[in-house]
Design a protein that fits this description.
The chain is built from 29 helices and 50 strands. The protein is an alpha+beta fold and 998 residues long. Among the domains are: 159 residues, Rossmann fold (3-Layer(aba) Sandwich), CATH 3.40.50; 109 residues, 2-Layer Sandwich (GMP Synthetase, Chain A, domain 3), CATH 3.30.300.30; 283 residues, Anthranilate synthase (4-Layer Sandwich), CATH 3.60.120. The strands form 9 sheets. Strands 31, 32, 33, 34, 35, 41, 42, 43, 44, 45, 47 and 48 form a 12-stranded antiparallel beta sheet that branches. An 11-stranded antiparallel beta sheet has the order 28-37-36-30-29-39-40-49-50-38-46, sandwiched between helices. Strands 2-1-13-12-14-15-16-17-18 form a 9-stranded mixed beta sheet, with helices on both faces. Strand 14, helix 11 and strand 15 form a beta-alpha-beta unit. The longest helix is centred in the middle third of the chain and has 20 residues. The radius of gyration is 33 Å and the shape is globular. This is Salicylate synthase.
Length: 998
Amino acid sequence: MKTTPDTPVRPRAEQELYIENNYWQQQSLGSLVSVWRTQFSNNVALIEAGTALTYAQFEQRVLAHSAGFQQLGLKTGDHVMIQLPNNLDFVISCFAMFHLGVIPILAMPAQRESDIAALCDLSNPVAYIVPNNYLGHDYIAMAERIVSACPSIEHVLVSGNAPATAPFTPLSQLASTTPVVAPSIDPSSTALMLLSGGTTGTPKLIPRSHNDYHYNAKASAELCQLNQHTTYLAVLPVAHNFPLACPGIIGTLSQGGKVVLCPAPGPDEAFPLIEQHKVTHTALVPALAKLWLEAKQWDDTDISSLQLLQVGGAKFATEQALQVPEVLGCKLQQVFGMAEGLLCFTRLDDPQSEVAHTQGRPLCDLDQIRIVDEQDNPVAQGEVGELQTKGPYTIAGYYKAPAQNQTAFTSDGFYRTGDLVRMNQSGNLIVEGRIKEQINRAGEKISVAEIEQRLLTHPYIDEATLVPVPDAHLGERSCACIISSQPVSLNDVHQLLKEQQIARFKYPDQIISLSFWPLTAVGKINKTALAKRAEEEYIETSINQSQSTTYFEKIISVQSAAAQLAPWISELSTNPFKAVYESKSAWSIGIGKVVELYSNGCEITLQQGEKIAQFSGESFAELMAQALQSLEFDNWRLYGVAKFELASVFHGIQTHTEHNKSLQLFLPEQEVRLAESQATLRALNEAELDALEALVQKADKTCAQAASIAALTPLQTPQINTQYKDEYKASVAKAVVEICNKQYQKVILSRRIQVPNSVCLNKSFRFGRLNNSPARSFLYQLNDFSVAGFSPETLLEASREGYISTQPLAGTRALGNSPQEEQQLREELLNDTKEIAEHAVSVKLAQEELAQICEPSSISISEFMTIRRRGSVQHLASRVCGQLSDNKNPWHAFQALFPAVTASGIPKREAIEAILRLEPNRRECYSGCVMIVDSDGFMDSALVLRSIYRADNCTWLQAGAGVIDQSKPERELTETIEKLTCIANYLIDEKTLAEAES
């Protein structure tokens, strides 16, 4: 096989054959844009979100970016690493580079520093194109590290906002009106490089020429009968060969069709686009096709325009293949191929049995295939063997990979695919597996060798192997099998790979520990036996998780009012873990801790007795759902606290909080629910249930005999007027300056007031509850931390049916000393433009946050700017509601809304940063939330304000005020005094009480 130093080329005779038979049309990919404009000028070519480009506009954008690239100094033969999601910048940038003969290297958005750095080391790109942020990952920070390690990179081009320093340049500023000096491009030269799945640590680079890739796309489009009426939805990452050119984007454009770019492949993103744009064609991997089939059972979006669904990337289960026409209402086409070349399709007129059971036959009559045994001898018809191929669009070798090319290609130029197939009598292939050491997880290829090498860097892992295990959702999941000197958890492995900047999809899904390897007869590790053991352990774990513990229950009558009885039950219990939560006249008391769940915002730990499970990944909400599904109890209710610092993780300011328990939930050993003169008692065994009954009866009797709490004299706290007064006003003044400088619109700044440790939280809570009208009240003790208070608003209310609401309060006045003064202050509040503006932006932000996680048509404002009396103050209040989208859970809502806008600011991220700068203390629980969470999806979460706090032998109050550009430091100080009064007026001092009683 004739080769060049970097890129192997086909023999000259083969090239001439492809040209003579018009398979290779001798055009560069960049020149096609002008051809398409001539043919389809006013047709819409590309759509992303609200932007649509005609073929003429597409050509204009490509030429403008070509000129911009040329002015940067990019020239024919240069390499550029491009790592963009499905957007217009990706398509335009690629074609602009094709026009200049610059070679884009197509990296996946999911790839991280380890892969990108290795690819840069191999290819020496002169530029790197990235988004500024995508799915929560900071590509700017990653690019900075890549550039520092790769001296060939001169420019980082950013889709979105970019730093104003070299080497960063926004792609939006790149376009130039200067005419392009178009170079002469050899159509047989490399046009782009795709990435191989890789059986070694670094993906190999697959050089595709202008000639072969144009044929790849155009022939696929003709086979699929695409035309000017086709609308193709690009849902898979478009750096993959499948959605880019099989027929994908390039094939659709070659026929004058329309391409709609979808930001994510889930049905909640894709189905509305199909309905809106009347999509006719799209492509999925089997795991996503299964998800779409499931979603369509409940989703009523009109996707009837869909004519053809291609499924490829892995073998599609027959039972699911048979469902596609009935459930999705379109034809199915199975596609089997590889970025290295060969494409096999079932045909549109194939019988259903062929479509459902086979992976198709080659695209081209010049595709040569053979199925061979281990000695490269052809197998008999219908027998399984390795597929080998060559043809007009299959490469002759990888880029700069002479060693791999020696083994990946035969002496006569056939590519060894590593796929095990058999051919049926009609000539269609049936894929039976692989001989390569790869795991195909949901269409993404994982190199076994790479992950095994990474695992061995853990100090406790002595030996490791990675095996594929069949999985109903992923096709294959990966299981790390280890021999270790000390216990190693799955979370330990995930943390190891995270530190090494490995893509998330490569993390093992399961881990098993062994003392020795099972061996085959020839002494090799028996991976079949390991996979079987992994499957058995997985099933056993699932069974154990389904064997849940049930609470014993009993209902008894009580005489005392719940508002007094609930804190008495808490006070009489000596358990250091307990919680009282009032919600809409229903009171719930949890005592003791049988399970604890806690998080630093990045990782979640679940401790059930001696069992400890850890969950880590990129989606907090999904991890919470996984952790809660692991609870070994039925009909549970959790009680918990989320500290304000958790917000810094949710908003990308920190990767994790300093405190490992910034979110802390516990499942109680005993529980009391009070309503209408009766108590429902719950405990884990009958003995504890009896003990709980005795405790409630004692509390009920004590409550009836106790002297009226209303007769007590509260502690005098004059320091609420003066403590930290000057420091607070100075912080407000700084914030006003920052707001006027457009750093943010609004921030809530607070001050902390120390009170004596002799204050009794229980008695203060009972006394305060008599004199407050809160949205929620609560009394929590979690070992050495306690909080008691009266929340003016709910952060989140989630029903069992997924209907959620939030209640932003903004705008405050005192109640005054008489009904007349209260009415006067109310009128003043309703006519104060500063307070109204502050409230309106809070409501607007709440709507925007719900739009992220709710069905758009369901979002409403059920009440607007009503007055709510909360203790000694009155507020402007509104309520914003919505129905959760079907792929969202209450924790998505919690993450979107936390922290409450009325305790942080607008925009939240910038406001949180300001709070961290301008306040002298960590907020901890202040402006966080307390909550109860039920197993059926119900969640009730209250904003922690108007509270008293105790931790680390210190007791304090805290209150804040909203600062905007019109704020005056003296007025905001007054507002903190008004809010502090809601709790300060009702503090009961144990020392003073003892002296009075004596």
